[in-house]
Amino acid sequence: MSAPPIPSLVPAPGGAAVASANDEARRIGIEEARALFRSGDVIVAHALFVSGRLKAPPAKPLFDAVELFAFARPAQPCIPSALGMARALGLMPPHTPEENARALQEIASLLLDELKAKSEDEKQRIRSLASSLEKAGWRWASPVLEAVGSPDKAQSPIAGFDTWRGLPQWEDDAAPDKPGSLPV
Q1: Residue 16 has what pLDDT?
Q2: Rounded CA gap, 86 and 65, in Å?
Q3: Residue 19, H or E segment
Q4: Which is nearest to 85 in space by CA: 67, 60, 97, 98?
Q5: Distance between CA atoms of 99 and 114, rounded to whole angstroms?
Q6: Is 27 exposed, middle or buried (0-12, 13-18, 19+ CB in 10 A)?
Q7: What is the full DSSP assignment across 154-174?
Q8: Given this model, what pLDDT does residue 84 score?
Q9: Fewer Cβ atoms within 10 A, N terminus or C terminus of the chain?
Q10: pTM for the full model?
């Protein structure tokens, strides 16, 4: 499965590097980078960091590859960058801004392929959660649902949050107090 047919953007000195869905990468100026970032139709790694580097707030939610990584590989640590995710996925580490932008395209495609290859039971849980996240405006929801299939229409509007019901129960006691004497 391929990433959405939108460009990926990585901040670079004087502007940014952009890679298109067909793997062409080029440098762009800061104003063009800001306009692309504000459009929301761009794949980035760590949107808050990119926003700070470009000194431009996003105008709408973005396709943040770090969010997709956390969704597809929950609880797996990685550095929130194209380089960090490439290392975590076993890809060749990118060295230049253009390679980082191309890597974001590859990372998104690989993560969507991983979701597509999950067992049917796992896909069912993913469908419910992705459907709930789609209602909340998560940009990756449509590509994720395309990879795992559409959820049942008869589901509860909050069915995606049933994921928490499968966790084991545990009791958490307070730490014991230190011995000592207190005035009454």
Answers
A1: 94
A2: 11
A3: strand 15-19
A4: 67
A5: 22
A6: middle
A7: TS-TTGGGGGGGGSPP---PP
A8: 95
A9: C
A10: 0.83
Beta carbons within 8 Å of 86's beta carbon, 6+ residues apart: 92, 93, 94, 103, 106, 107
- Cα separation, 172 vs 152, in Å, equals 36
Q: What is the pLDDT along the chain (184 residues), one digit of tens a residue?
A: 667 789 999 999 989 999 988 878 899 999 999 999 999 899 999 999 999 999 999 888 999 999 999 999 998 999 999 999 999 999 999 999 999 999 999 999 999 999 999 999 888 888 888 888 888 889 999 999 999 888 766 566 666 666 666 667 878 787 887 888 878 8
Q: What are the strands, taking DSSP E only, across 30-135? A: 43-44, 63-64
* Beta-sheet pairing, 15-19 with 63-64: unpaired
Residue 46 to residues 17, 57, 65, 81, 123: CA-CA distances in angstroms? 15, 13, 7, 7, 26
Tokens of 19: 């890679």
Is residue 81 within 8 Å of 46, Cβ to Cβ? yes
Q: Which residue has the tokens 């969704």?
A: 71
Distance CA 89, CA 69 (A): 10
Q: Are 18 and 57 in contact (CB under 8 A)?
A: no
What letter represents residue 9's amino acid?
L
